[in-house]
Amino acid sequence: MKILLNKSLNFEVLTIEDDGSVIIHDHFFKVNMQTQGVDIPAFLQDAYHHQDKVKLGDPLFAKAFQEVYWPMNMNPENYVWAKRVEKS
Fold this sequence. Notes:
Blueprint lengths: L1 E5 L4 E6 L5 E3 L2 H9 L2 E2 L13 E2 L6 H13 L5 E5 L5
């Protein structure tokens, strides 16, 4: 499991489960990703089945978020990836 943290707020923005499913913990951000999605630049669209947008719920959303949205739209000093290890 991988989580995106907002370091300044100590808030989990989203979680990517081991099966690739994505849980967004902020309601407004979740609605935005469901309706607007991640804009895929033309030069990357081959890797996303020629889609120009990938919305939450699409099997490619986790990949699009990590490879396109996060590096282009989020400050990596404030938003960092971490792994959570579940205790058994």
